[in-house]
Amino acid sequence: MSHYDFFQNRECEYFPCHPGANPESFSCIFCYCPLYALGANCGGNFQYTKEGIKDCTNCLRPHRRENYEAVTKALRQVMELAKKKPEQAENP
């Protein structure tokens, strides 16, 4: 077991920040999801609000230790988006 793939901040006033999440296994390592920018291609359990805002309230993908490797692997997609010049960028 690795020690770098899990972190908790139980002193955070929002811990755990997703309703119904198990506090014992909730990881804060990706406090803000690094895959949010992938839009519909993030692989998480999200929905869009009627205003078109991505709502990740029901998504625990980045907060589960067993998903650490998958999330860091998917970061390559985020880096590819960041490399694109504005005229090359696509809407997710």
Structure, described:
The protein is globular and about 45 Å long. A hairpin with a 5-residue loop joins strand 1 (47-48) and strand 2 (54-55). The chain contains 1 helix and 2 strands; from the N terminus they run ββα. It has one domain (1-92). Helix content is 17%, strand content 4%. It has a two-stranded antiparallel sheet. It is mainly alpha-helical and 92 residues long.
Please give a handful of descriptors for the protein shown:
single chain, 92 residues, mainly alpha, 2 strands
**Class computed from helices, strands and strand pairing:** mainly alpha
Q: How helix-rich are the residues, as a percent range?
A: 10-25%
Task: List the domain count as a whole number.
Answer: 1
Assembly type of the chains comes to: single chain
Helix-strand blueprint:
Blueprint: E1 47-48, E2 54-55, H1 68-83
Antiparallel strand pairs: 1-2
Quick structural summary:
This protein has 92 residues and is mainly alpha-helical.
